[in-house]
């Protein structure tokens, strides 16, 4: 009876929220038409930078071709410096890497936070509509959502704790999955999440590893809303620690202490042991290691692909018109971020389950990780980038600079030296 009561209560709240989401779509059309000249401007003026997209050798070859004197391959040309000047200026004006660590700029306003500060005021009518939206989102939707979130988290702690007292049998596993699914679905209602799952026949199976692109902490809620997973992460204290300890009593999640996280071999061995037990839930891993703004997929750490077993790729794509799901941890703490999520219009997201993938014969972990990453990026309509997401906090490694130096020196010295100094790129350790 209690479960039915909670389900009906959350369903009623969801229906109430959907009414406002439909109304928002109509209002959004008007707002888009009011600022349609922004789209026209973006078509007429593609930007300050027109990137060539070629390799260093090709672009320098173009620069040398316009010289009056022909230059052989083994000679230095002063015009080569213009290539490095241009690349440096491009990075200053429009850095393709660091812009992935901030919210994407929308073409039209979604009646939420401004992403373009040049348009604080457009018309009185839009300002009034925005004010009404603030009242609806903060005074009507937010109290309902926070209530659902409290119910979901409370029931997760209580339910998993009670299930943890049962002996390790099929009934315990069944009840554990039931409690997890119910709680995650209630929490998804608390975010007014509208989720469309594609290709469900490719859903991750037990004993496998599910890897996905990472945009937000709520990625876990989005995926667990359609199936149960074994979570992997660091042990915490406080409220998060209470939730982790209660969850691990009913389900074999993998939590590491801070000291263990630094021991790469210890982490890999524990994950291998989990995957070896085919009855265990699939492990959910985000190989990027940090949140990206859902416009691209950055380098996958190779550690997740050294464990062995079957990899189940998943592509997650959020619709930014209804709310910005990206978590900019440098700008917002967790509480502020969740407040932004619960006061947005909705979380609209598409999830694609891709066919399972395994390492091919002679394929190392790095190449396998890149192959999986490319498949996720292609399916989700995201930009496939080779850069490491850790650049959000760390400086560029010296190896990247040395790689560019070796490429140029091989052009100047000649083909023979190039073969002997072929750079070897490798994913950073997870």
TrEMBL record:
| Compositionally biased spans, kind Basic and acidic residues | 419-430
Alphabetical list of InterPro entries matching this protein:
LPCAT1-like, Plipid/glycerol_acylTrfase
Can the keyword Electron transport be found in this entry's annotation? no
Task: Enumerate the GO terms in the molecular function aspect.
Answer: glycerol-3-phosphate O-acyltransferase activity
Q: Name the pathway it acts in.
A: Phospholipid metabolism; CDP-diacylglycerol biosynthesis; CDP-diacylglycerol from sn-glycerol 3-phosphate: step 1/3; Glycerolipid metabolism; triacylglycerol biosynthesis; Lipid metabolism
Which residue intervals define the domain Phospholipid/glycerol acyltransferase in the entry? 208-319
From the record, give the transmembrane residue ranges. 7-24, 122-140, 146-166
Q: How does it sit in the membrane?
A: Multi-pass membrane protein
What family does the entry list? Belongs to the 1-acyl-sn-glycerol-3-phosphate acyltransferase family.
Q: What is the protein name given in its UniProt record?
A: Glycerol-3-phosphate acyltransferase 3
Q: Which organism is it from?
A: Oncorhynchus tshawytscha (Chinook salmon)
User: Per UniProt, what is the name of the gene that codes for the protein in this document?
Assistant: GPAT3
